[in-house]
Amino acid sequence: MDGSPGGHKCKAMEGLIEEGKEILKEDSEPETLDAALICAAQKVEHYEIATYGCLREYARVLGHDEAVAILEETLNEEKAADLRLSEVAEQWVNSAAMEN
């Protein structure tokens, strides 16, 4: 809690970002690209949800109530972003992509 996060890079997140970059290089219809990018973004969100959920629980077990509150807020933001991506995909992006 008093230290810094250090220079550790998360290989899993780097892989997800690389996957998104590769999607951007694909020669696809815009609607198909949109659907693929939403999928890639949701993978990132799910990873973040898992990470913040674990960190929140660690903070709770350790009795760091202020950190629990901050992590809970961040976790809720990530869940909201994931929900919004699902809504956009389900309302129009996925069906538009399937028409191509």
* CATH-defined architecture of the domain at 31-98: Up-down Bundle
CATH fold-level name of the domain at 31-98: Ferritin
Question: What is the C-alpha radius of gyration, as a whole number of Å?
Answer: 17 Å
Count of distinct strands:
0
Order of helices and strands: HHH
Share of helix, binned: over 70%
Distance between the termini: 50 Å
CATH superfamily of the domain at 31-98: Ferritin, core subunit, four-helix bundle
What top-tier CATH class of the domain at 31-98 fits best?
Mainly Alpha
- Low-confidence segments, given as residue ranges, are none
Can you characterise this structure?
It is a single chain. The chain has 100 residues and is mainly alpha-helical. It has helices at 11-25, 30-62, 65-98. The protein has a domain at 31-98: Ferritin, core subunit, four-helix bundle (Ferritin, Up-down Bundle). The radius of gyration is 17 Å and the shape is elongated. The protein contains 3 helices and no strands. It is 82% helix and 0% strand.
Throw out a few tags for this protein.
0% strand, mainly alpha, 100 residues, Ferritin
